[in-house]
């Protein structure tokens, strides 16, 4: 969520004890993450049984084995983060993070605006996918959402859509086939379990027995099966949108879905390898019953497009902001990181 939505931790009662943020997913570079900890919950992190350099005040390793860790509970001069930073910190990456924050603000002005932009794109993509039908009326995709989620509302959903592509008889096309077809068109999607076993199990109706059977069949995260023994799908496809995604990106993906699945005749044609010759394919001149009914403008109609939107190459995947040379700044890194508030 932090990739495209403002991170608001201003209400302690509603803030989580731990909030993980992947900065590389927001900026592309640097490869850093952060753990934001509520101070009352910090004691839970003091129970680990190991230590590294920089987190101790003294070590005895000759004639005895003893060490004293930096403990903010007994020494007020220490802070919680000092007890968790083992070894040398990635100083260069930390400096780069300051520039990434500045460039992001210069390009997009605020995370609120990014959120409005991606919410609009998500609504357009959801509407387009929902309207895709086979000639017999069967939906082309099954989209997985929680109850009460409404695409276009940044308060209830992020800028990703998880789904499976279906045959015209309602059976699931393996996610591997969808990803291979997308790759062949230079469209990059995420597929599989998405590092979310609970969500995948819920949406695909997988039981513990299904997972045990899959393990026995040598289903692995790095070597997934196309289908489980029960016939259920082994994973899903996910499209992610970001600050640099454009409306054209969404329409290109919808065009891909129409050309690659809606107008392909027969199950065998839908599972062609990227290098195979496709047969019985008709690519329509216009998106049938899709483009004319998609949302045409964001809720903030008339607002200026996000900076750089028109000049960036189309892609579903986010671009690395590091490709743009940031201006030098004399601001302190601490003040820039202050945009991500800590609760204590």
The level 1 CATH classification of the largest domain is Alpha Beta
- Do you know the CATH topology of the largest domain? Aspartate Aminotransferase, domain 1
Any idea how many domains?
2
Order of helices and strands: EHEEEHHEEHEHHEHHH
Number of strands: 8
What is the overall number of helices?
9
List unreliable stretches of 5+ residues. Answer: 265-291, 299-305, 307-344
* Residue fraction in strands: 5-15%
Q: End-to-end distance, in Å?
A: 22 Å
Average predicted local confidence, pLDDT = 78
- The fourth-level CATH homologous superfamily of the largest domain is Aspartate Aminotransferase, domain 1
Which strand order does the major sheet show? 5-6-8-7
Question: Radius of gyration, Cα only, in angstroms?
Answer: 24 Å
Work out the helicity level: 25-40%
Q: What structural class do the secondary elements suggest?
A: alpha+beta
> Per the principal axes of the C-alpha atoms, what is the gross shape?
globular
Which CATH architecture of the largest domain is right?
Answer: Alpha-Beta Complex
The biggest beta sheet, please? 4 strands, antiparallel
